[in-house]
Amino acid sequence: MQVDGLTKRFGDHAAVDGVSFTLAPGASLALVGESGSGKTTTVRMITGLERPSGGSVRLDGRDRGDRARSRAERLARAREIQMVFQDPYLSLDPRVPAGACVEEVLRLHTDLDRAARHARAAELLDRVGLGEREAAALPRRLSGGQRQRVAIARALAVEPRILVLDEAVAALDVSVQAQILELLRTIREDAGVGYLFVTHDLAVARHIADDVLVLKSGRVVESGPTARVLNAPEHPYTRLLLDSVPRRGWRPPQPAAG
Description:
The chain has a domain at 2-58 and 72-92 and 160-243: 3-Layer(aba) Sandwich (Rossmann fold), CATH 3.40.50. The protein is α/β, with parallel strands linked by helices. A hairpin with a 2-residue loop joins β9 and β10 (219-225). α3 packs parallel to α6 and α4 (114-127) crosses α6. The chain has helices at 39-47, 71-80, 98-109, 114-127, 132-135, 144-156, 174-191, 202-208, 226-231, 236-243, and strands at 2-10, 13-22, 28-32, 54-59, 62-63, 81-84, 162-166, 194-199, 211-216, 219-225. The strands form 2 sheets. A 6-stranded mixed beta sheet has the order 6-7-8-3-9-10, sandwiched between helices. The chain has a 4-stranded antiparallel beta sheet with strand order 2-1-4-5, covered by helices on one side. Helices cover 39% and strands 23% of the residues. The termini are far apart. The protein is globular.
C-alpha cells in the first residue's frame, strides 16, 4: 500500500496534513502520537470511513479513492482492508452471539452455504482461542479480551491484505494485551497479513511493528525502523514521547507546600 500526501481538513483545521508512507506486503507499521495527532483520522481515510481532502491511497497500484462502480466492487474493496476498533463492543451487535457475528460476514462476502459458514466461523474463532461456549455467547457475556478476539476473527474472515488496528489493546489489562499481541504476531506469520497499528503506547509499537511513523498535529515528524526511532530518536517530539513513559522509580510530581 502506498499513501501519498494524505490530507483531511475540517474547515480551516488540518487534522491530517500531507501524510505519506509505504506498507509492504506482510509488514507491520505503527502510527504513534498523542491524542489529537491525526492517527485515527488517517486510518479512517485509508479504510474508506472518511473521504480525504487531498492525497491518495493506492493498493497494488490501484487508487482506492476511485468510486466503486458496483456492489461487488465495493465488497471486494472492503475485503482488502479490515479494521479492528479499540472497543469491539461498539462494533459487535449486542443481540447476536459471537459465532453469528462472524457468520454474517461470511454470508455477505462468500458463497458458502449455511453449514459451511458455521464451520468456517468455528474455525476462525478457534484460531483466535475461542470455543463453542464463547461462540454461543452474546458480546456482553464475554470479557474485553474475548470480544477483541471475536473482532479479530471477524476481520480475518474475508482474508484481508491489511488489518488496521486502532488502539486495539488500549482498553485491555496488561496480561490480556500480551495475549492479544502474541496472537497477532502468530496470525501475521501464518497468514502474511499486513498490519497498520495505531497506538499511543510506545511499548506496544516496539513489540508489534517493523517500522514507526510519528505524527504530531497531523504531520509526520519522524519515521523509520522501530528500533532506530525508539532507541535513537532524531526529532524532539519523539524524544518527548519517550521521556513521557513512566519508568521504574517514577513518581508523579508533588504539589508545592503551601
